[in-house]
Fold these 2 entries.
Entry 1:
Amino acid sequence: MGLIKIEQMEFYAFHGHYREEQIVGNRFLVDLEMETDMSKPAESDALEDAVNYQVAYRVVKEEMKRHTSNLLEHIGKRILDAIYRELGGLTSVTVTIRKMNPPMGGPIRNVSVTMTRKV
């Protein structure tokens, strides 16, 4: 088994509970971890035998830009659903979504949600 990590993908999107967040938008950072058997691509050195992390990035980007969600949990579920729909050979996927500078009434670097789904 092996772990593919794509860390700190950055997006400007319009997610949030408050109407202002959906109008003004915010910066989000997304981490993705995908567990898979890497023995075949390690031997063959062929992309078609591996989990294509360019496809994974595209899926996350599409879900972040697709439509507004009120909750980070909803975005996380959408990303997990789409990753499993688009990519095969995964045994576990973890996504972490960070909303930078959330409107909490004081200085906060970020708030995050982490979700994991195993097959």
Entry 2:
Amino acid sequence: MAEQAQKRTKVVDKWKLKSWYSVIAPEAFESREICQIVSADEANLLNRKVRIGLGEMTGSFSQSAAYTTLFFRVKEVKGKTAHTIFTGHELVPGYVRTLARRRRSIIHQVDDVITKDNVKIRIKTICITGLKVSEAVRTDVRKGISEAVQSLAKQTDFNTLVQEMVFGKLAAKIYSAIKKIGPIKRVEIRKSELHESFS
């Protein structure tokens, strides 16, 4: 029995070695808490991706908040707080599909833009028309969207642009810029992706 006792090794509860970290959104989202993550080592948190619904983040029950997902990446850990940067957002694919109806056209446009404070981001826009439109009109709409997005990004710092993309203000500005081109019914920023470089 004594020999068996000596052979027994002490079991370490790895869970007790872990700590909870509060994950914080960047200033564009008022530095709100996104979630809490448990980890044994803060180094494991760096560059971790975090996603959260806009409605969950803001407590809003609007249609746009319900169908928008936000993406963040942990860039710095101080104490038990993990600070993030915004890396993009996306409308739920199912919601995008509901925008398509018979006798309508959906026009897609992708633009790589640089903000006033020199941040590069890709913006994917969709435009829904009230009627089917010709390829010539589609071309003019895409050109109009691209010109508007590029111009607006140059005039706007990154944090402001993020807010305008996520909360619909950018889409409204684009709509105003292109509404005379054809029977434009709606404009949405479908997706955004921050251009990241890892050293």
